[in-house]
Request: fold
Amino acid sequence: MDYASLLNKYDVPVPRYTSYPTVPYWSDSPTTQQWLQSLAQALSRKETSWSLYLHIPFCETLCTFCGCNTMITKAHDRELPYVETLLKEFATYQKALPDLAKKPLRQLHLGGGTPTFLSAQHLERLISAIYQSVTIDRSDFEASLEVDPRRTTAEQLEVLKKLGFNRVSMGVQDFDSEVQRLVNRVQPFEQTRDLTLAARKLGYQSVNYDLIYGLPKQNLQSFKQSIERTIDLRPDRIALYSFALVPWIKPQQRLFKDDDLPQGRDKLALFEAAYTRLLQAGYVEIGMDHFALPSDALAEAQKHKTLHRNFMGYTEMRTEVLLGLGVSSISETPDCFHQNEKVLPLYEKKVQGAEIPTLRGHRLTEQDQAQREQILQFMTQGEVKLRSQAQIDDAQAFLGDMIKDQLVALEGDILRITNLGRPFLRNACVIFDQRLRQQKPETRIFSKAL
Reply:
């Protein structure tokens, strides 16, 4: 079967599986007390380590492709109050969880929004205050941040490097000026180049670029040029995302016409061109839609089967607890998900009242946990062991077409994605998604596979 036929068959809405159950299927929402009990139980285990995610929601301008929870403002007097709110939220957790300060913090990630909306001074205030009350093993610690090259200075990178940050992820999306205009993100090549050089001069171990295929007015020739420019700058990691068209969630995506978007075979051609060229240039494919140089820690983690995937994306290590601070942040333990209030004034009101700003979450059943592990293994290793003859029989039946089309292979009790099937890994993961299979959504809630 040719790729055009495969697209017609498999380019359907499916989850990205940064969690299981996926957020639309969260049901048994914990109370704040139940969430704290789950955290306390996880932290009581001897082997527990943890990761910290800090969400900075502010952006000065709106990128029309963006699906993140953001607040558009140029009012920088909002910086310090938000920093102090983050620190107050953290203090509330510390008071409720004495073990938190004793357990090793292995990962720290600043996401957004635009984390470098905060000045160098306020970034230092935030991170230094957190460091004063946590335990860090500097020999095994990763601190990373997302940046917008249009809004990031060498001073900010220098301050964060002194605070132990060693990885930086830059939003690039596409170097073509017309594509940039349509997505409201005009970012000359020189800005990305200069910030990359500055990060390397300061000693950042890894630089990542985020690229997106499927944006308005992208075409094969222009996107190939963007890939070549990317390779010329040689980032250590590349995230090559399919544009997730979800205008029912993000109305700003209606600012361009559907006719402007490459779709179907044209969109797949963009992915294939980038995929082939990145491998030719020496990059290693990592899980789904990620690439890294063989020397990068992400490639090493994949080789040694320690690669992990969570709400922050692919990481080279797994911790038992992910604690998210900030408006809309998501946290997880082995048996629970928790999300903060998504509306900034509601989040701030709860935090100022010394409350955990709980919005919703999900308490995982034993079946949820088992299926999460299988999806995680499949998404990070490209193969997974099936647990029983019943599951083998189910895979043969449910994935029959994908097996016939040579997108997946079932060898004994091992289910494996093939090279041909890599773009459809999300489709194959549905075999383990019992909640989706038992209750298909009546309306479209996920982006398409490609």
User: Anything to note?
Assistant: Residues 29-165+320-364 form one domain. The radius of gyration is 21 Å. The longest helix spans residues 79-96. The chain has a mean pLDDT of 91.
